[in-house]
Amino acid sequence: MLGVKNLHKSFGSNQVLKGIDFEINKGEVIAIIGSSGSGKTTLLRCMAFLEQANDGIFIFDDLSKDIRSISKKEIKEIRMKMGFVFQNFNLFRNMTALQNVMEGLTVARKMPAEKARQKSLEMLKKVGMLDRANYYPDQLSGGQQQRVAIARALATDPEVILFDEPTSALDPELTGEVLEVMVKLAREGTTMVVVTHEMEFARNVADKVIFMENGVVVEEGSAEEVLSDPKQEATRRFLKRILRKEEEE
Amino acid sequence: MLVLSDRFFRIVRILIESFPKLLVPCLKITITLTLLSFFFGLILALIIALVQVADIKGLKQLARFYVWIFRGTPLMLQLFIIFYGLPSFGIFFNGYVAAVLAFSLNLAAYNSEIIRSAIQAVPAGQTEAGYMIGLNYFQVMSRIVLPQAARIAFPPLFSSLIGLTKDTSLASSITVIEMMSVAKRVAAVYYEPFWMYMEAGFIYLMICTILTRLQTMFERKMEWKQPDEVKAEMDIAKSENMKEKGRFPGGNEAC
């Protein structure tokens, strides 16, 4: 339902994505792993049109065309069916948690205020943030902010949610509460693309794991295949490094 | 000793006599001139800033040119050109209108830079999040970027308002009878320039004090830190805390 073929992206002379193929089907959870600078975040951002890719085919439901030829109107329609969770949460600072979740419903989708309010409260309840509905982002911890951000992404009933390192900006003791919510969503059948450093999460919930390095997909397969029995030397090296880091913590 | 106390009473009498003479033009001219100029200047500043942020070809260059001209020349010169210079092209303004025009145009240049930098200070992530929930450019600007930019721009904009209050005294150079020119005249009549100018200064200081208090009040209202229901309680706690310390926190001594 969402995918790209032969995706290329450069920042100036720096080639960040060198022909990526990616596809996710309804109900799947895909984890994208790789070291910093491997291009995994850029891949996610290109699929949300937060970065303009240089070349490639973009696929979303029945739409399949050159990624450069997609119009602003089409981008807006695609985003209407897509959720995005940022590394830095990016909750609207001038709105309460509830207003943050409601905004996409009342303003972008013209839903009546009362209905939007009910639905937003429901979403906040789902992520365990109902008691903080009237708090502003600045009053919430990072983990709480990220849970509100997930509620905001969920509220619009997206076909797929893209997570860009959702726990990387959090203190270690706060990652648990966010991962918990994400595991719950995965179990409920939410279609999710998750760029992450959380190997445990990838192992437990991902239907498929993709390992990227230097702008290419080095290895992909089931979580078991990639994380426990990697075929590629680069993957093995990366996993070893990650494991060592986790042990140190 | 007798001479000294005589002089003392004379000064007190003059100060009291002249106070309403200064206050009336202050209220009628200085304050209206300030508010009108600030209002028009702010609207123009917003347009100039938005044109640049939206990167509208042609208009952006025009906006830069405008800012360059009005920041690069003295305000006094701009007043003179509008009041004394334009008539040679058959364009006449009375002193008051010329002053509003010059102050508005000048202020727009400075304030547009404040607004532009405030808009650019709103993190890109806010805009991205807005687009990702399905908002369009106009909605992102009006609902997310501008409200946040307003809070960032508020203190420097208020400083420019306070600055303008005092800059209106330049209008005396183009025949506008505002507080400064009245002070000059009264000083000449009584031959007590020191005390007359001190009195005028005192009135300017009072206006600025009021404005500074207003600024502190507005800034507190604009905070997004307290949840809705808790806010009222917190405000009470804060004001009591303040009484203890005997001062206002965050007061701005911009005057």
What would the CATH topology of the domain at 18-191 in chain B be? MetI-like fold
CATH topology title of the largest domain in chain A = Rossmann fold
- The order of strands across the largest sheet of chain A is 6-7-8-3-9-10
Q: What is the succession of H and E elements of chain A? A: EEEHEEHEHHHEHEHEEHH
Strand % of chain B is under 5%
Query: What is the name of the CATH architecture of the domain at 18-191 in chain B?
Result: Orthogonal Bundle
Q: Please estimate the helix content of chain A.
A: 40-55%
Number of H/I helices of chain A? 9
Biggest sheet features of chain B = none
Q: How many structural domains of chain A?
A: 2
CA-CA gap between termini of chain A? 38 Å
Assigned CATH class of the domain at 18-191 in chain B:
Mainly Alpha
What average pLDDT do the residues of chain A reach? 94
Which class of secondary structure composition applies to the elements of chain B?
A: mainly alpha
CATH-assigned homologous superfamily of the domain at 18-191 in chain B? MetI-like
Q: Explain this structure to me?
A:
With 249 residues, chain A is of the alpha/beta class. Chain A has 2 domains: 25-52 and 71-81 and 159-249, P-loop containing nucleotide triphosphate hydrolases (Rossmann fold), CATH 3.40.50; 92-158, no CATH class. In chain A, 41% of the residues lie in helices and 24% in strands. Chain A contains 9 helices and 10 strands. In chain A, the strands form 2 sheets. Chain A has a 6-stranded mixed sheet with strand order 6-7-8-3-9-10, with helices on both faces. Chain A has a 4-stranded antiparallel sheet with strand order 2-1-4-5, with helices on one face. In chain A, strand 1 (2-11) and strand 2 (14-24) form a beta hairpin. The radius of gyration of chain A is 18 Å and the shape is globular. In chain B, helix 2 (59-72) crosses helix 4 (95-121), helix 4 (95-121) packs across helix 6 and helix 7 (179-190) runs antiparallel to helix 8. By secondary structure, chain B is mainly α. Chain B contains 9 helices and no strands. Helix content of chain B is 80%, strand content 0%. The radius of gyration of chain B is 23 Å and the shape is flat. Chain B has a domain at 18-191: MetI-like fold. The interface between A and B is medium-sized, with 33 and 24 residues.
